[in-house]
Amino acid sequence: MREADRLAIAAGISGYALMEAAGQAVARVVIANWGRRPVLVLCGPGNNGGDGYVAATHLRNAGWSVVVAALGAPKSGTDAAVAATRWPGIVAPVDLSLLAERPLVIDALFGAGLARPPDGVARAIIDEINRLGLDCVGVDVPSGVDGDSGQVLGAAPRCRATVTFFRLKPGHLLLPGRALAGSVHLADIGIPAAVLERIQPRCWRNDPALWRDQLRRPRLEDHKYTRGHLLVIAGGAMTGAGRLVARAARRAGAGMVSLAAPAEALPIYAADQPGLITLALPKPSDLAALMQGRRMSACVVGPGSGVGEGTRDLALAALATGRSCLADADALTSFAGKVEVLAAAVRGPFLITPHEGEFNRLFPDLGAGLGKLARVRTAAARLGAVVLFKGADSVVAAPDGRAVVNDNAPPDLASAGTGDVLAGIAGTLLAQGMPAFEAAAAAVWLHGAAGSAVGRGLIAEDLPEELPNLLKKLES
Ligand SMILES: NC(=O)C1=CN([C@@H]2O[C@H](COP(=O)(O)OP(=O)(O)OC[C@H]3O[C@@H](n4cnc5c(N)ncnc54)[C@H](O)[C@@H]3O)[C@@H](O)[C@H]2O)[C@@H](O)CC1
Ligand SMILES: Nc1ncnc2c1ncn2[C@@H]1O[C@H](COP(=O)(O)OP(=O)(O)O)[C@@H](O)[C@H]1O
Ligand SMILES: [K+]
């Protein structure tokens, strides 16, 4: 963001003009969403505080009763200092007694310049805003949230809304930042679009625009093998997982889905889905010939496979084929403490889809304190594969540092078996030749959209049935 400011200013836009537009946008959001009431604007010492003085001025001009309280005066010569001198009212010191009449609070304490956890009276007033449950509007970010990671440094107010500028930051999409920001309003403050091209961001909010063109549409000359033949390596005991993977893969548009499992379980799979091809689980040494002979373009290994050497060897054999491969669930846990073995085996496109527990088993040193985005990027680089770290704020990262954060998944998806559906969708996209990064991004978006389409009462089995409609909409 600093770079965006610098380039915008280099392009002839004054820093103060950006601040004016930012503060005005904050006032606009407040006026549009709250009836007139007492407002307390908390201003920090930097430009975030500067935005606060501008917002205060606009609200006062609009007839609102505004109190401004500052942590300290902005440094002279800064844009924030100019904004402070243009505020026509008095400036009070920050004090908890200002909350007594339960004002609407505008939090302009710290934004992108947050350098350490808020302490002293800044920390005290943040805690008190939360304790009283006051309506609060964050300027840029709720103060205390790190815009790059969504992590909280010490404390941050729980905002009803946050107004940010130019472009969302990862911290607006990643937990806990996303939950603390409330509804996020993105304001255009006049930074030219060309600045975005210069910055070349490496992290995006997941959106069909990133991958829609790479979805494979059925063609007149297609036959089942040209639309992707996915192999699902499943288990003999937990058959539900493999069935969900296969069902989702078929609804996602695979030309053919074959499922390999221990022979005694095959009747269960065959009876569940007549259109599914069932095969006896091959020996790892036979897997390459099987995939080659049956023109299988990708394989999913792990859901319901069982943890242990057998699954590990099948996953390694799948990777050795050089064909696209997705490892999830038991195939990941089977490499707990041995991620370097997995990394050394990567030959072709490879995607892993861990949840928090599986991620920690593979990468115990990449703990939560690093922030999800950094954890996933590091894991992807280390593995030489695309990593989709699941959750309400799923992150997909490629070894080259590209990343997307997904924010369309409803909490209804927190239900057993939904991860298997995700693996099936992604497996099909891989089988159709979509690059692993785009396949993961598309799959997690489709999964979230399917979850939203079902809503309350969702069970994993519902999700595949939503895919035809969603795919149709994406094509129109
Ligand atoms: N394009 C943009 O993004 C624009 C950004 N603007 C605003 O500028 C902000 C960034 O401004 P700054 O870089 O001045 O940074 P901030 O205003 O976020 O904070 C920096 C100041 O706070 C102090 N500080 C940091 N952490 C502290 C803590 N825990 N306790 C006490 N003091 C602390 C620093 O020493 C420094 O004085 C953005 O968040 C945004 O609100 C706008 O003014 C206009 C344009
Ligand atoms: N609170 C939540 N909000 C949105 N999506 C969620 C939430 N919790 C879990 N999910 C999603 O649900 C799926 C669960 O997958 P997983 O943990 O592998 O479960 P299972 O193995 O039972 O299928 C993942 O795609 C995950 O991102
Ligand atoms: K803030």
TrEMBL record:
K(+) binds at residues 48, 107, 143. AMP binds at residues 390-394, 419. Its cofactor is K(+); Mg(2+). Binds 1 potassium ion per subunit. SUPFAM superfamilies: Ribokinase-like, YjeF N-terminal domain-like. It catalyses: (6R)-NADHX = (6S)-NADHX; (6S)-NADHX + ADP = AMP + phosphate + NADH + H(+); (6S)-NADPHX + ADP = AMP + phosphate + NADPH + H(+); (6R)-NADPHX = (6S)-NADPHX. Residues 207-474 form the YjeF C-terminal domain. Pfam families: Carb_kinase, YjeF_N. It comes from the Bacteria. Bifunctional enzyme that catalyzes the epimerization of the S- and R-forms of NAD(P)HX and the dehydration of the S-form of NAD(P)HX at the expense of ADP, which is converted to AMP. This allows the repair of both epimers of NAD(P)HX, a damaged form of NAD(P)H that is a result of enzymatic or heat-dependent hydration. Homotetramer. This is Bifunctional NAD(P)H-hydrate repair enzyme.
